[in-house]
Amino acid sequence: MMTTTGASSPLRRWPLSSLRERRAQHLLVEAGHYLADDQLAVVRRAYRLASLAHRGQRRLSGEPYIEHPVAVARILVGYRLDVETVVAALLHDVLEDTPLTRDVLTEYFGPTVAELVDGVSKLSQLNARSRDEAQAENFRKMVLAMIEDIRVILIKLADRLHNMRTLEALPALKQQRIARETLEIYAPIALRLGMNQMRMELEDTAFRFLHPRRHEVLAHRLWESRHQREVTFRHLVDRLEAALAERGIAAKIESREKHLYGVYLKMRHKRVPLHEVLDRYGVRIVVDDIDTCYRVLGVVHGLYTPQLARFKDHIAIPKANGYQSLHTVLVGPESLPLEIQIRTRAMHRVAEDGIAAHWRYKSGSDDVHAQEHRAREWLRTLREMHEGTANSDEFLDNVKVDLYPDEVYVFTPRGRIHRLPRGATPVDFAYAVHTDLGNGCVAAKVDRRLVPLRTPLVSGQTVEIITARGAHPNPSWLNFVVTAKARASIRHYLKNLERAEAVALGRRLLDEILATRGLHLDGLGETVLQDYARRLGLADATALLTAVGLGERPAPLVAHYLVDPGGGEDAPVAGPVAAIAIRGTEGMVVHYARCCYPVPGDPIVGHLSAGRGVVVHRSDCPNVSEHRPEPGKWVDVAWDPSVTGEYAVALRIDVENARGILAQVAAAIAEAGSNIQQVAVSEHEERLATLDFVCTVRHRGDIAALFRRLRHVPGLVRLARTPV
Questions:
Q1: DSSP line for 397-440
Q2: Domain 405-482 belongs to what topology?
Q3: Is the peptide bond before 603 cis (omega within 30 degrees of 0)?
Q4: Does 97 qualify as catalytic in the annotation?
Q5: pLDDT (tens digit per residue) in 347-379
């Protein structure tokens, strides 16, 4: 550890007059307000190394490059971050832009500083196909480092803030790209961590570069109305101070103005002009304790008429980033709507500094600890999201979804509050409580009433999840869940499920082929499978079986090599091969072709399709003859006598074009016990219409029953199963 205690005079060893590095003077003076003497020595040593490493380098603005890391370090010193973070900020670009190595940083400053610098640095020698892919991969690396040590993102945010302050030096296109990235990723992260002041500066600066004309016009309009606002607010503050003093309430009262980008967002989202943005002006009242907050609320409601529909109690129900405050909108002087925020001093510190308050206020109020706990919970969610995503692009998309929560607040049956994005469903709620609860979800009750799982939730509702043993996520849930955690968890489960099913199918395919020679896969030994897997560049025998099950490796060729490892690969195993039994329970690695819709009872054949496993076709499907020249990709399949489930069948029905005919046909299908999945209607003659249905049946016998029922429909001209 680099931290020490005790120092009567932080800069006693280095009087300012003797400092040769003038750029470090302000940094050392500011850091000296809270760092010990020997900690300042480490900061000075880090500055010397950074200055030496960046010697001769200049930014596009023309200033020496060392100005940038010093500025980043000063931003973090403003939050009173610990010495390791300040040192890492001074060195945050040396791994990326200089010959210095991580080993050197470890030797001079310890492994923690080296890990922080490495976490902030971009990936080197990245083989990305596009800028977006590179951005996604760098973001993934940074988030993984942030999960291990949250100070990584604090350094990155300070780095981005100084870059935004000096963005004028860059070309216009690069300015816009960086500004957009700041609005989409870094400002929302600052908000998610509760660092409100930093978030507002990032947003306003990015807004200025992304939409310069809109920024200029809006800033001018707000400036024009500022004088009148100040007069009105002075009168309001005087009246509030008098009313609070009369009741013996000590409070700090200050006026506030919504930041420029916040006003712009309100105008854009609500599609209203500037004068209709009601909460662009407000008053903040800071008191000592929570009880006083509610007393002050009664006072202000006694002075001015409140708009009750716009009252929010974020003290009882904090926001996801730990923000707490009472918000009420009053009809103020001259009928001007005014937002009043009431909070304690501790809440105000958290509202301004967020997670950084953990370092600034080491005595640690409950509010600071609660905010830190919420940040850690969010990081755990990010870890789960990362484990459930296949690539960096998908992970970045999931994080972006998670960073834009327009929140609703719902309750568990025991009264615990959960915050979810607007539009969240009971499935999102289940995954927010616990991943296992989401995976086992089969139904939900909202306010004690059963509702469909896709039902959007509303603030104040109580949600109860009903689970069942053996239940698992439904792929259709991905069509309506909105939280990144739910989406990543569902995909992760389905991916693992598909792999397990592919392994089982691959084993079945190889066993059926090997049985023609009286062999069995288990009898060949694990070593043979492992050797062939390594020859193909696969990780292990399980990966080989997965590739066979997914159709990525032809089963006959794999079986041939396993039987004769020394022979060639172009001769398949000879002899008749028993048909693979289709039971209807194979899951995600057996698909039923949509070109011919096979059902139990139809003669069928299987096609090995890369990435999908076995695709089952009817034997008379036109696509079968088209692909027959690929013998290694076809396998014999047959319906197992115990096959279960429902299967789609396509019907084409020509009818007389009369009023209500579609309803009559649909009723006949329902009476036959079939469910309609889709329907299309087309007219090909003046008096005839063609109806194309996709229905569900269990076997060919159901199709016969369906045909018998449809033939009783008046006006039926022709009935056929497609493809014909």
A1: HHHHHHT---EEEEE-TT--EEEEETT--HHHHHHHH-HHHHHT
A2: Ubiquitin-like (UB roll) (3.10.20)
A3: no
A4: yes
A5: 888 777 777 665 554 444 555 555 556 666 666
Q: Are strands 441-446 and 449-451 parallel, antiparallel or unpaired?
A: antiparallel
Is 96 in the active site? yes
pLDDT tens readout for residues 594-622? 889 999 999 998 887 765 667 889 988 88
Per-domain residue ranges for the chain?
A: 16-212, 219-361, 405-482, 492-639, 647-722
Token pair 């000879």 is at which residue? 574
> Who's near 360: CB < 8 A, 6+ residues apart?
79, 80, 349, 353
Q: What is the mean pLDDT of the chain?
A: 80
Q: Tell the CATH superfamily of the 219-361 domain.
A: Beta Polymerase, domain 2 (3.30.460.10)
Catalytically annotated residue among 21, 38, 67, 97: 97
Alpha helices in 166-211 (DSSP H): 172-181, 187-192, 196-210
* 387 CB burial (10 A radius; 0-12, 13-18, 19+): exposed
Q: By C-alpha distance, which of 498, 448, 450, 506 is closest to 473? A: 498
Torsion 328-334-335-336 (CA) sign: negative
Say yes or no: do domains 16-212 and 647-722 share a fold. no
CA distance 349 to 360: 9
Q: What global pTM score does this model have?
A: 0.57
Beta-sheet pairing, 463-467 with 590-592: unpaired
Per-residue pLDDT reduced to its tens digit, 471-512: 888 877 887 898 878 888 887 777 777 677 777 777 877 877
* Beta-bridge partners for 607: 615, 634
For residue 574, give every residue at least 6 positions away whose Cβ sits within 8 Å of its Cβ, in sequence order, or none.
516
What is the fold of 647-722? Alpha-Beta Plaits (3.30.70)
Q: Which two tokens stand for residue 238?
A: 């005087």
What mean pLDDT do residues 122-129 have? Answer: 46
pLDDT digits (tens, 9 = 90+) for 158-207: 999 999 999 998 999 999 989 998 988 888 888 878 788 899 999 999 99
**Minimal CA–CA distance to 556: which of 580, 523, 538?**
580
Which are the contacts of 127, defined by CB distance < 8 A and separation ≥ 6? none
Architecture, CATH, for domain 16-212: Orthogonal Bundle (1.10)
Q: Which of 96, 133, 279, 393 is catalytic?
A: 96
Contact 553, 535 (CB under 8 A): no
Tokens of 594: 């949509």
Q: Considering only CA atoms, which of 613, 612, 594, 592 is closest in space to residue 604?
A: 592
Identify how many contiguous H helices and E strands the chain contains and give both numbers: 29, 21
